[in-house]
Amino acid sequence: MSGLNHVPVMRDEAVRLLRPRDGAKYLDGTFGGGGYARAILDAADCVLWAIDRDPAAIARGATLAAAYPGRLHILQGRISEIFNLLDAAGIVQLNGAVFDLGVSSYQIDDASRGFSFRNDGPLDMRMGSSEMTAANLVNTVSESELADILYEFGEEKASRRIAAAIVARRGQQEFATTADLAGVIRSVVRPDKSGIDPATRSFQALRIAVNDELADIEAALAQTADLLAPGARLVVVSFHSLEDRIVKRFFAAQSGRAPGASRHQPVAEPVKPRFRLLTGSPVTPSADEIHTNPRARSAKLRAMERLAA
C-alpha cells in the first residue's frame, strides 16, 4: 500500500480541530506516510514543516513534497529536536501542530523492521538510527532490568516470568528474530479473554525502550507549546495509556489544571493557563473507522489552543 494513500487514524477529526488557514505555518511532528500532511495542505493554502526520524518516511516524503512545491518541507530528526530542527529552518513560531504518536503502519507492516510479532523478521525495532536494537537489548540487559522495562513500558503483569524465560533461553542461544522472541513469551503467558496476543505488551515495551519514545514525547510537547502563536492549536493522537497519560498531564498543566502526582512526575504547582482545552474528554475513533482499521481501536485525540499572551 502506498504511503500516499494511507489514511491515518482520525485524520478528519485532527484536521478539523487544527483548523488550517491560508498563509499560516504548521508542523506535522510525526510525518509517517504523509496522511495528515496531505490533508492539512489540502485544507488551506498554508506551509507545513514535517518531521520524522525514519529515513524510509523521509524518502516517501519527497514524492509528496513534489506535489506541493514550496509548501511542504521534510526534516529528518527526532521530535525531541524540534527546537533545533525548526530553528535551522528559520522557523520561530507556528500557527498549529499535530502529532500522531507511536509506531507507524509502514513500520509495523515491514517485517524487515522487526516491529511486529505477526511476521517473522530481524529483532530490530529501531525507528531511526539509534545504535541499540531490540536484539541487543534482550540479549544483554540483566533479568531485573528487562523485567522493569516490560512492566514500565508494556504494563505487563507477567514481566518477571517473561524476563526469566528470556534470560534462560538466551543462555543457550541468543535471540535474533521476532518469531523466536514471541514464541518464548507465548510459552509463559497464556492468551486472555481480550484476544490480544500475549506478546503484544512485551513488544510495545521493547520498542519504546529502544527508541526512548516517552522522553521524546515529553520534550516534543514542551518545545512545540513554546513555539505556538496565540490562537494556534496543538492536536495529539496517542495509542496506548503511557502516551495518553503524558499528553493528558501536559495538557492539564498547560490549561491551569494541575495534575496529581505520578511515579514519573511530582505534583505540579498551579500555573497561569497558557492554553484552553478543546477536548474535555478525548476524541475516539468511530465504530466504522475501527471496523475499517482495527489498529485505531485504542486511539485517543486531545487538542488545545494557545491563549493570548
CATH architecture of the largest domain: 3-Layer(aba) Sandwich
CATH structural class of the largest domain: Alpha Beta
User: How much of the sequence is in beta strands?
Assistant: 5-15%
- End-to-end CA span: 45 Å
Overall average residue pLDDT: 89
Characterize the largest beta sheet: strand count, sense, and whether it forms a barrel: 7 strands, mixed
SS class: alpha/beta
Q: Unreliable runs, pLDDT <50, ≥5 residues?
A: 1-5
Topology:
Layout: H1 11-18, E1 25-28, H2 35-43, E2 47-52, H3 55-67, E3 72-76, H4 82-88, E4 94-100, H5 105-109, H6 134-140, H7 143-154, H8 159-170, H9 178-188, H10 200-211, H11 213-227, E5 228-238, H12 241-254, E6 275-277, H13 287-292, E7 300-306
Helix pairs in contact: 1-2, 7-8, 7-10, 8-9, 11-12
Describe the structure.
A seven-stranded mixed sheet has the order 3-2-1-4-5-7-6, sandwiched between helices. Helix 1 (11-18) packs across helix 2, helix 7 (143-154) crosses helix 8 (159-170) and helix 7 packs across helix 10 (200-211). Helix content is 42%, strand content 14%. The chain folds into two domains: 3-106 and 213-306, Rossmann fold (3-Layer(aba) Sandwich), CATH 3.40.50; 131-211, DNA polymerase, domain 1 (Orthogonal Bundle). The protein contains 13 helices and seven strands. By secondary structure, it is α/β, with parallel strands linked by helices.
Short description, anyone?
The protein has 309 residues and is α/β, with parallel strands linked by helices. Helices cover 42% and strands 14% of the residues.
What keywords describe this structure?
alpha/beta; Rossmann fold; seven-stranded mixed sheet; globular; DNA polymerase, domain 1; 309 residues; 13 helices
